[in-house]
């Protein structure tokens, strides 16, 4: 069992998550079994209660854990599925330690960061690695953060316990480019490594994020001041087209070779053919292009709909086409009308969301898609929006709504689930994680999946109201998938439409570049047809 720890220096947003994912991908190309996990030093128990402004998307796992969006990168870059044990926060550690203290488990001792908190972190490390060859652990935040100290201390102790030849530390750092001086600077990286060494951690590999190529001189300097072999100073330039170029770039720098050497792993040579073909399809697709509008309320935030944007790119790989994404603010549709924003798009996607801001704009977008026969993909809230729109405009149920947005609506076509009614706590209390869904014959959904039973991840409190099922079906809104145990409607489709599909779950959490999601592929395929027919 081998361990890789990835820390970050100088600034946040260095792309440590992507580097971790890409390294995992590289090791898998050498036939190693890899798992990647993240330790987040903040005090929230999980990011499930954080706003997209604070934290970007909340990524949901099969087991229902609400996790950091970096776990999305890990699952997209590698093959294994992750569990709630793969995203540890200080909040979870302290919650656990304090419960033990209240139970009296510490037998009268003073409870302290060292050893009680650090022991808990180490215990989680030992448990997380079972069944894999290499466990990669990314530490959130930046070296020097006060809240990160217990984690680094625990990892230092851990590396001593499991033997130093079984562990490597990789430090991802930034070489800022000073335009006035016309050069890259190494000093911040030197200081960041000095900070790590103060705690007793000597990095084995330095990954240098940079906009400009490094010179040999700089490699030498970094090697000497940071006490890292020269060949272990790795350059990581900004990717040019896509994040999926990263495994290829790191392979070119010899990263995987270096890692297996340093860990003493006897691994096969790497086979990059799958990644080469993914990147070829992303950079120079052969099958034309289409334009998809994502209508949401966090369109200025890079990370709020991360997995949605990634899944669209994967569907581009699947269809060998370019997918251009137009981010449309639903509130601006309320102001200007749908046509002015959506006139020239080939597909409209409405992602998940909470709260009533921008809802009416999304309903207008769904109406526009239905009336103009534009492919429409509604995800979670986007499915609920499609149902509300159909009820209002086709069934004539004026003011139909979800009780999330109007508790007094005469036609609650979307309502709170029974088991949700009495819940007051916000954390980890939604309908979360993977549920079975049975697909109905003759639907677009079953045509896309090509199998009758699927499993998809959920994160919601409201659901399709079965009291309206019959009327909506008679009016042409077909139920295409149900949860068999509880008869919950999971997929709806407009019968008289080229492709208007809404799903109560989040397919974007199961799409990978190596295995694009069938619904995203079908949606983009239809958008591509539309784009071609316009020519
Ligand atoms: N707000 C809706 C609900 O709770 C949709 C949630 C979502 O889109 N993830 O049911």
Offer a concise description of the structure.
With 535 residues, the chain is an alpha/beta fold.
3D structure, described in words:
There is one protein chain. The chain has 535 residues and is an alpha/beta fold. Helix content is 37%, strand content 22%. The protein contains 19 helices and 23 strands. Helix 11 crosses helix 12. It binds glutamine. The site of glutamine has 10 residues, from strand 19.
Question: What brief labels describe this structure?
Answer:
535 residues; alpha/beta; nine-stranded mixed beta sheet; seven-stranded parallel beta sheet; globular; binds glutamine
Q: Treating each run of at least 4 consecutive H or I residues as one helix, how many helices?
A: 19
Any low-confidence stretches, pLDDT <50, length ≥5? none
Structural class: alpha/beta
Indicate the overall shape.
globular
Bound ligands = glutamine
Strand content: 15-25%
Helix percent reads: 25-40%
Average pLDDT rating: 94
| Spatial order of the strands forming the largest sheet | 13-12-14-15-23-22-21-18-19
Distance between the termini: 56 Å
- What is the tally of beta strands? 23
What's the Cα radius of gyration? 25 Å
Task: Please outline the major beta sheet.
Answer: 9 strands, mixed
